[in-house]
Design brief:
With about 325 residues, this protein is α/β, with parallel strands linked by helices. The chain has 14 helices and 5 strands.
Amino acid sequence: MSSDLKENFAFRPGRRAARPGTQPPAPRSAGDADGGAPSRPANRPGPSALAAKVRTMAPSMTRSMQRVAEAVAHDPAGCAQLTVTGLAERTGTSEATVVRTSRLLGYPGYRDLRLALAGLAAQQESGAAPAVTADIAVDDPIADVVAKLALDEQQTLADTAAALDVAQVDAAVAAMAAARRVDVYGVGASGLVSQDLAQKLLRIGLVAHSHVDPHLAVTNAVQMRAGDVALAITHSGRTVDVIEPLRVAFDQGATTIAITGRPDGEVAQYADHVLTTSTARESELRPAAMSSRTSQLLVVDCLFIGVAQRTYETAAPALSASYEALAHRHSPRQRTR
């Protein structure tokens, strides 16, 4: 990577970039070193979403914060009884780390996290089924493979639904529904998801393009302006081939959206709206791309349905016309002798 590109993508966790000619925005993340209040405290996760939030956020936390997160996820009842000092002592961290972890998980402070832990513990005591791992072994019979994959897909979808900030989804839908054009960036497995979203939007009459070639993505991003929408899909949150066109579109004044499993990753610096997907449970036989794709497709479908609802008067006729245009391709052809 060139020194210029490295400078462009110098990552500062929780900080958003400033558009040209504007002041830098306030920190996005609740986990900034300054310990500021979270940006969207009203959308704190409920007890049922806490475990999903931990799974999503843990990989991007510091090791000390991970210890706190793992403790509250594995023993919510025990941790709910502890003061902030007690939890710090149990995890070998500091009170400040406990508070920062609480905020990063979406709670204004440790008191709110304790309330959620108590609620989660009550749910578990009521007889809710415990989580089951879906690790696939090399000698598993195919029946077990099917059952384990189905279980993991269900958990991935549930985690993504729990972690999604509905206010951010609604804002993204509003921007897309009003956009002059929508450009979607993705590479690899995320590129397939970007193509899925673009073709869905095309069928309801929107001008939408998927760019999986990074050079074409950047050259198209240069042409974007206010009123356009650029959407980047990257599970890791640090794919340069996706971040670069998003940054260019951001600088051009377009509304920018990121679908990512790392909401505090580099891509969030250039995103007006961040939509968080479930963190994939990776294994030797199941790469992260498999479960990350599942969660990305759920978010894409939410965006598509939301846009179709807002543009129903034009979307319905457009969708009907696309069906009619392709109907003959789905009819059995008569054989000629």
